[in-house]
């Protein structure tokens, strides 16, 4: 990029998705950068066009028309900006063609292979399968699996530096025997990244050097006690650009158009989340729920994790959500009596007509019930992968000897979670913001004090790649135009009888007004607090309940307002339970719906 950062005033960014290419125009207005307009067009990687740049130019044309100024000419995007024409830089992310699909291999399934999966996921990939010497498959079955899946790339790891060589060499022999062919392109070799024991490099090069596009990087598990994922993640993104993207229709032209390297969409989302977490010192969980998959991102204590629930989505994969969650778990969120066959038919209709959106209220309610389960299951899967290092020897005290804990606990600590970011159509475009809030609360069961937000128009990928060029611009747009603050959830953790006081709260509102609340177990109460304002809450949980400082301990904190405001959720945690009796369950759901004004009272829910 030839232009200096301080000279940048106009930025064009695109995200080439599997079905839609989104374009945004960001410009400096006064002392800060703001989103100006947004456009979109169908992605054009398939026949008859087979040129991704055509979809990009179509989306940019819409941006140009909405902005009321010329951005394109006969040669493409006008750069740098000249008067009121063109932009200073153009950047892009991509998940077109199904994104980056990888296999990973490691010596031990729940140690190096799991570290390899974390590296691949963090690099923006979908992990199709994990091979390990102890995954209970015979060598010929592993070979056949590699041939059938045809991944874009394979990450091979195993062994600590200076340790045993034979096991990781066995894995390399299996990959060599499979002679894998890439999914895209027939004339190039499959990229293989070796990130294992340095002592095995010569053997790996002998086995794979001629058959594949082998690339060697630092061991991702150099010792049992240390995980070093960043070199592998960066190498994945580099090879994605050089090998995989280069084979997709029109991507060489697109790479020539951009001022910085194209990034995989999920990797860019992860980058902006890590930046926000680091800049503000907060613990963050984000979820992007799409039609086919749900991506979950988290940053806890500076450690970034990402998981992809490949069969949990709201259109193409809606039947898989239903199958995994079960009829009972979906039905428990529906606040009216519904025939089981009717529910199954609705789900089948959505599967065969995946682009349809709810037309009547009861359809919306059912879709949001399924969304809760998709989010819940994907979050459980994320917590299971986002763990400390396995296989590490730890010193133990006498009391630990009698403990059943393995020491491999999830890094995701819901009590310390500061912010949840929801993304994807069902959350970002819910008819009422309070619906998004309740879906996230029901799925994630936040504890203590947690801010609830949504990505307004799924700008996070473009802002992630922008952060590499102009971090201040990315942060300003993220906070001002991308992030919609819904409100702050305050949830005391504990168990009590229905109607018993569990929390006393004092709220110092803007302007000095004070409000006192006596909150009972089972309550869901909303106190309005506008976007852009702050209030100070002083929380006094009763004995046995915790809001973040320990059971019975007072917590005082300044919190942000939102579209909904402050939400006191005293419905219980550990466990959160709904009544088993259908009539009582529906009454309870309806009371919560009324408390948060989730749906209009007229219509189907009033019957």
Can you characterise this structure?
- The chain is an alpha/beta fold.
- The longest helix has 25 residues, at 361-385.
Summed up, what is this model?
Helix content is 34%, strand content 24%. By secondary structure, it is of the alpha/beta class.
What tags apply to this protein structure?
24 strands; 18 helices; alpha/beta; 607 residues; eight-stranded mixed sheet
Shape: globular
- Would you tell me the structural class of the helices and strands? alpha/beta
What is the helix tally?
18
Q: For the residues shown, what is the average pLDDT?
A: 87
Radius of gyration: 25 Å
* Helix content range: 25-40%
Oligomer: single chain
| First-residue to last-residue Cα separation | 62 Å
User: What composes the largest sheet?
Assistant: 8 strands, mixed
Q: State the strand order across the main sheet.
A: 15-14-13-16-17-18-24-21
Number of separate strands: 24
Low-confidence residue ranges:
392-407
Strand content: 15-25%
How is the secondary structure organized here?
Blueprint: E1 10-16, E2 20-29, E3 32-42, H1 52-67, E4 72-73, E5 76-77, E6 89-94, E7 100-106, H2 112-122, E8 125-132, H3 139-149, E9 153-156, H4 166-178, E10 191-194, H5 201-208, E11 213-216, H6 230-247, H7 251-257, E12 263-264, H8 265-280, E13 284-289, E14 294-300, E15 303-309, H9 318-325, H10 327-331, H11 340-352, H12 361-385, H13 398-401, E16 419-423, H14 425-428, H15 433-444, E17 448-455, H16 460-469, H17 471-482, E18 483-491, E19 501-508, E20 514-520, E21 524-527, E22 534-541, E23 555-560, E24 565-569, H18 582-596
Parallel strand pairs: 1-6, 6-12, 7-8, 7-9, 9-10, 10-11, 13-16, 16-17, 18-24
Antiparallel strand pairs: 1-2, 2-3, 4-5, 13-14, 14-15, 17-18, 19-20, 19-22, 21-24, 22-23
Helix pairs in contact: 2-6, 3-4, 4-5, 8-16, 9-12, 12-15, 16-17
